[in-house]
């Protein structure tokens, strides 16, 4: 089946919104250092762009998680594939994600990271699909609320492809 991408958010719209979030974070964390935690792979493109627009001191770390499988996924259990290199103790942490969909990944992850003793812990996501939520997750910074459609680009993949698109699109099948 042939597929094509319908543009949902242009590169300009995404860039402008990331700039706004960067400014907001810089204000909210004035006088502090923020520690950005990127959830691989999807969060990587957004985190790099966001970090460039934050004007307070920034440090970065990366983690990779995966769902256990369809059975346990419904219980919200995720497996850590690559853990953070550094401790979160007493740091002002912002978890950076590409999308919050069902909320399973982030609700589990935030609970786990909270146990590591950060001074503060917030969540920043480029996209949010509120209609799809199964588990409640508090999002502190949201780029865009989007409808319930499967999106790609800016880190988001369809079968590992399209992460490199500089805009957000919807996969459509001809
Ligand atoms: O709210 P949820 O329903 O849990 O879905 C959101 C999660 O799913 C995607 O990651 P994925 O596991 O596909 O890995 P990837 O980032 O490597 O693509 C996305 O990047 C979020 O981490
Ligand atoms: O809409 C989506 N696109 C790509 N990956 C995802 N993971 C959760 N939702 C999505
Ligand atoms: Mg992800």
Spatial strand sequence of the major β-sheet: 4-3-2-5-6-7
**Which runs of at least 5 residues are low in confidence (pLDDT < 50)?**
none
Radius of gyration: 16 Å
* Top-tier CATH class: Alpha Beta
What molecules are bound to this protein?
A: 1-O-pyrophosphono-5-O-phosphono-alpha-D-ribofuranose, hypoxanthine, magnesium ion
Q: How does the helix and strand content classify structurally?
A: alpha/beta
Strand content: 25-35%
Bin the helical content.
10-25%
The CATH topology annotation reads as Rossmann fold
CATH architecture title: 3-Layer(aba) Sandwich
**How many DSSP helices?**
4
Tally of structural domains: 1
Shape: globular
- Return the string of H and E elements: EHEHEHEEHEEEE
Task: Calculate the mean pLDDT score and round it.
Answer: 94
What's the count of strands? 9
Keywords: Cytoplasm, Glycosyltransferase, Magnesium, Metal-binding, Nucleotide-binding, Purine salvage, Transferase
InterPro entries: HGPRT, Hxn_phspho_trans, PRTase-like, PRTase_dom
Cofactor: Mg(2+)
Pfam families: Pribosyltran (PF00156)
Produce the secondary structure layout.
Blueprint: E1 3-9, H1 11-28, E2 34-40, H2 43-52, E3 58-67, H3 70-73, E4 78-82, E5 92-100, H4 104-114, E6 120-128, E7 141-145, E8 151-152, E9 168-173
Parallel strand pairs: 2-3, 2-5, 5-6, 6-7
Antiparallel strand pairs: 1-9, 3-4, 8-9
Helix pairs in contact: 1-2
The structure holds 1-O-pyrophosphono-5-O-phosphono-alpha-D-ribofuranose, hypoxanthine and magnesium ion.
1-O-pyrophosphono-5-O-phosphono-alpha-D-ribofuranose binds near residues 100, 103, 106 and 157.
